[in-house]
Task: inverse folding
């Protein structure tokens, strides 16, 4: 009997993940790709994948991959009135690729295990380009046995597939990775306008911070876009803020001081209060530009 695999959530990450699961398989699996939003499903087609808005198509799946916006959506999909957790095959595995809070990942995982299901929290890093190329980093939390069983599937979507520890460890690792990234962007947002206000040329400055010792993925991705005044390409600020909320929850629960993270959180909050929640993280530079009366831009023309 062929294995039935379902992917729930077909956004920028979910659809290319479904494609790689299908294209790198041996052709014996049944793969179903589901999104409740007709706009997301419109035009999607791939040999070997059944694409649908019907969440009932998940019924009987042996493996369910979730690629959803946040923990509340994950919880509703799994345990709501038409919860997917009750429709899966006995002993099925839920692999949650979404980014959710550590504590919520643990509680949802335990609820799934109580229903006789296996669970991996397996958030990914690598952006849509990594999803398309199948080169994501996948950080997994769960039992060694479940990880071993799912690793061959995860290797279809990721170049680095890592078992980080027990349930919740994948999400905790993703939070750490994202917060470090967020701090990098927040630092750029406050320092670049200061430098321009002091008379430095934005393009020359950009050349230094994208190649010198301060360079990072954050600077190499966002600084060229800031120079062009482009703030609508990446993941929205308002949604990314959840990573800092997750870190704060761990800090409060365990009494761990996170002063630099707290400062970066303030920078995020400034951008959100200024109305930039739908723009990408580079938009954190905008409140600082407004305060100092400068623009970190390349000359037009």
Result:
């Amino acid at each position: 009997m062929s294995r039935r695999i379902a992917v729930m959530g077909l956004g920028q990450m979910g659809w290319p993940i479904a494609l790689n699961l299908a294209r790198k398989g041996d052709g014996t699996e049944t793969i179903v790709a589901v999104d409740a939003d007709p706009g997301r499903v419109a035009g999607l087609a791939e040999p070997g994948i059944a694409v649908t808005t019907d969440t009932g198509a998940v019924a009987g799946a042996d493996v369910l991959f979730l690629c959803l916006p946040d923990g509340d959506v994950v919880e509703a999909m799994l345990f709501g009135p038409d919860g997917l957790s009750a429709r899966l095959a006995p002993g099925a595995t839920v692999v949650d690729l979404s980014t959710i809070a550590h504590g919520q990942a643990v509680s949802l995982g335990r609820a799934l295990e109580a229903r006789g299901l296996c669970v991996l929290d397996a958030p990914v890093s690598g952006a849509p380009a990594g999803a398309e190329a199948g080169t994501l980093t996948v950080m997994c939390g769960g039992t060694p046995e479940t990880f071993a069983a799912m690793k061959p599937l995860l290797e279809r979507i990721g170049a680095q597939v890592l078992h980080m520890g027990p349930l919740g460890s994948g999400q905790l690792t993703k939070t750490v990775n994202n917060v470090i990234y967020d701090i990098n962007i927040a630092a750029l947002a406050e320092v670049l306008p200061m430098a321009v206000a002091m008379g430095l040329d934005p393009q020359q400055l950009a050349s230094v911070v994208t190649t010198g010792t301060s360079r990072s993925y954050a600077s190499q991705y966002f600084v060229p876009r800031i120079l062009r005044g482009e703030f609508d390409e990446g993941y929205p600020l308002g949604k990314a803020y959840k990573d800092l909320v997750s870190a704060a929850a761990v800090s409060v629960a365990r009494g761990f001081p996170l002063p630099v993270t707290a400062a970066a959180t303030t920078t995020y909050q400034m951008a959100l209060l200024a109305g930039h929640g739908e723009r990408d993280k580079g938009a954190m530079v905008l409140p600082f530009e407004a305060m100092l009366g400068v623009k970190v831009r390349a000359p037009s023309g």
Remarks:
- The chain has twelve helices and nine strands.
- The domain at 172-292 is CATH 1.10.1040.10 (N-(1-d-carboxylethyl)-l-norvaline Dehydrogenase; domain 2).
- The chain has a mean pLDDT of 94.
